[in-house]
Design brief:
Layout (H helix, E strand, L loop, with lengths): L18 E6 L2 E6 L4 H7 L6 E2 L5 E2 L12 E4 L2 E5 L10 E3 L1 E2 L5
Parallel strand pairs: 1-7, 3-8
Antiparallel strand pairs: 1-2, 3-4, 5-6, 5-7
The structure holds FE2/S2 (inorganic) cluster.
C-alpha cells in the first residue's frame, strides 16, 4: 500500500462512504455520495450507455462536460451530462439511442 492510499477503515479524519442507489434502465446500481452518475455507471462496469447517430457506442469521452458524449435521461430530463451530474440516491437514469436506424 502506498502512503497515498488510505483505506476508509483507517481514515484518521473519520470519513466514511455514504452509499446510494440509482436505477439504470430499471436495474439498481450502487454508488456512494460524491460520485457523478458517470462514475457510478463506470464503477458498475458500463463503458457506454448511449448510441450515437452513426450507431457507435457513447459513454465518457472528455469527462469534463464539454463533449456531451455521456448524456442520458435523468429523472425524466433528457440530455443530462452524466459526467457533470452528482449522483443522488434514487436517481432514475434511462439510456438514450439516437441511432440513424431508428
Ligand atoms: S464525457 Fe464529455 S460531456 Fe460528459
Amino acid at each position: 500500500m502506498s502512503a497515498r492510499s488510505i483505506g476508509a477503515d483507517v481514515d484518521s479524519v473519520g470519513r466514511r462512504d455514504r452509499p446510494l442507489a440509482v436505477t439504470v434502465d430499471g436495474t439498481s446500481v450502487a454508488g456512494v455520495h460524491g460520485q457523478t452518475l458517470a462514475t457510478v455507471l463506470l464503477a458498475d462496469g458500463r463503458s457506454h450507455w448511449r448510441t450515437g447517430p452513426d450507431g457507435g457506442s457513447r459513454g465518457v469521452f472528455c469527462g469534463i462536460g464539454v463533449c456531451f458524449d455521456c448524456v442520458a435521461t435523468v429523472n425524466g430530463i433528457p440530455d443530462v451530462r452524466l459526467c457533470r451530474r452528482p449522483a443522488q440516491d434514487g436517481d432514475r437514469v434511462t439510456t438514450q439511442n439516437r441511432s440513424a436506424a431508428q
